[in-house]
Amino acid sequence: MKFVVGSQNPVKAAAVETALDRYQPTIRSVAVDSGVSEQPSTVEETISGAKTRAKRAFAAEKGDYGVGLEGGVARFDGELYLIMWAAITDGERIGCGSGPSLRLPEVVSAHLEAGRELGPVVDDLLGTDDIARAGGAAGAFTDGLIDREEALAGAVACAFGPFVTNEYDR
After folding, report:
1. In 3-state terms, what secondary structure has residue 53?
2. pLDDT digits (tens, 9 = 90+) for 109-122
3. Which of 32, 66, 93, 145 is close enough to 56 for a disulfide, judged by CB 3.0 to 4.6 Å?
4. What distance, in Å, lies between the first and last C-alpha atoms of the chain?
């Protein structure tokens, strides 16, 4: 199966490969616009970005599926959380799934509320360079218990469910 991932970020392509390994996927990455802000700030905006990436990836290059992955932040119970969503389309149907969510430290939340983007904020705070292409904020704020690839892979697995089980057709 060929999966076209709507991002040039190697962590996102690796997440698709990790999640769908049993299907022996062929992965291609294409640059597409998410159609949302650089730092999505609601669940709805994050899902919209994932869906748009999936649709545009599918349209950009021939494949069996287009995959969109989007990280964002959202407020739950008064605190800001990192969230991750995936969308997968075969051109007719679209499946969506989320990865884990992670409460962000107050110092990070303050920067995000001031309009900054998560990756650069974490890079500045931790002295890293482009953490979004490595373990991500998930890895940084869990001491590596889960990293960005694993978190995104969970979202991909959930989004692919409707394509690999009959339970959604009942």
Report:
1. helix
2. 999 999 888 889 98
3. 32
4. 25
Residues 90-118, mean pLDDT to the nearest whole number: 94
Domain boundaries, the chain: 2-103+148-169
Please write the tens of the pLDDT for every residue from 108-165: 999 999 988 888 998 998 898 888 777 888 988 999 999 999 999 999 999 999 999 9
Neighbouring CB atoms inside 10 A of 30's CB total 18
Side chain identity, residue 131: I
Instruction: Find out whether 119 and 148 touch, Cβ atoms under 8 Å.
Output: no
To the question of domain 2-103+148-169 being in CATH 3.90.950.10, the answer is yes
Of 93, 89, 37, the residue nearest 68 (C-alpha): 89
Separation CA 33–CA 22 (nearest Å): 29
- Tokens read off for 143: 């001491």
Q: Name the CA radius of gyration of the chain, rounded.
A: 15
Closest to 30 in 3D by CA, of 61, 2, 55, 1: 61
For residue 125, give Cα distances in angstroms to 11, 76, 78. 21, 23, 23
What 3-state DSSP class applies to 127? coil
- Please, are residues 83 and 100 in contact by the beta-carbon 8 Å criterion? no
